[in-house]
Amino acid sequence: MAETYNGYCVKCKEKRDFEGEVSVSDSGRRMAKGPCPVCGTKMNRILGKA
């Protein structure tokens, strides 16, 4: 289930809303990962623990 998150695109150098999937990193943090809607670069946003 893809949801909309706000993240920073390193390539565009702007904050953008992107559609992403929630995954858990190796260190146990939840993060939303998805492509930038403008340039297609992978974006991610670290979410809270709850």
UniProtKB/TrEMBL annotation:
InterPro entries: DUF5679
Pfam family name, one: DUF5679
Origin superkingdom: Bacteria
Record domain DUF5679: where: 8-46
Name this polypeptide is given: DUF5679 domain-containing protein
